[in-house]
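Record type: monomer structure entry
Structure origin: computed from sequence
Chain ID: A
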Amino acid sequence: RFLAALRAMQIGNKPALKSALLLVVAVAVGLLLGEGAVRAAIRVLHHPPLFVGDPRTGWIGRPNFDDETIVVSGGRFRVTTDSLGHRVMPASPPTDNRPTVVLVGDSFVYGLNVDDHDTFAWQLAEQMPERHFINLGAPGWDTCQEWLDLARFFKGSRETTVRDVVVMVYENDFLDVQRSSDPWLGRRRPIFHVVDNRLVGGEFHLTGIERLMDRSRLAWLVRSKLALLTRQSDFDPHRGTDVVLACLENMKAEIESHHARPVILAHRRIGHPPTLGQKSWVEFLAKSGAMDITDSIRLGSKSNPLGFDKLHWSKEGNRRAAEVVRNDLSVMRQ
């Protein structure tokens, strides 16, 4: 039908065909110019996308950053990532048989706001050279995404001797496990529900636009900005606690099946009203077996534990987090 219509235009209305072709060319040229302009702006403003799409978790950290300067929320930091999108650790010996500690979490574990060597993962690696540390943190992830990625890590690292897995739970997880998409990233995530005390759901696949976002900076910019304009439903954090708890239980089972020790640490927002009420928070800590480290991060006589965005940890905040984890690992070693 299209070819027949095209022939009709060629025979009966050549000016219309010419106009249509000119329109197509103009749109293509406009998109190319827009793509080039966005890429140039990204380089100048140091604001590259931190993520790429992932068919299992929705997104992962962008791989192969090489000391990349990132400007966000009025500040800047430098990021280096490996081929899997994980932030790098201090160089290890070629033959490394040290027991491994895996760090699991969201942007706090990733180290948003601080340079590579200021993340608490890097600080731990320097302070405990007898251990090998791996940072699986990714900005924006909820507890279920972290569980999915940890299961993938164990499947692909069968020869790695994992001694401990430290899981960080941030109180926004109770909201994020209910959101099918992240309004700041313009990307979707797998969603789970608790039915008869078990997790169900999680079916997920990347859409065409999400794959395009990884190739076109223009598509990434437009999609992420439009996502901010989309009205988000008001979620009750209390409704998300069962999902977070179920994901943690699955994570614990995965960890223990590989003869490793799970360490669950939880923290709340500093300088902002809490997401979850105190009673519900205490109940969550009791059911999950998590240790609340909020005061360990908040209290101290040195510099501000919060970074330039007034939310994520500064170098000092990461130092305090490293101290908490180091003390736990040291006690268990003894």
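Annotation 1: The first strand starts at residue 51 and ends at 54.
Annotation 2: The CA atoms of residues 165 and 262 lie 5 Å apart.
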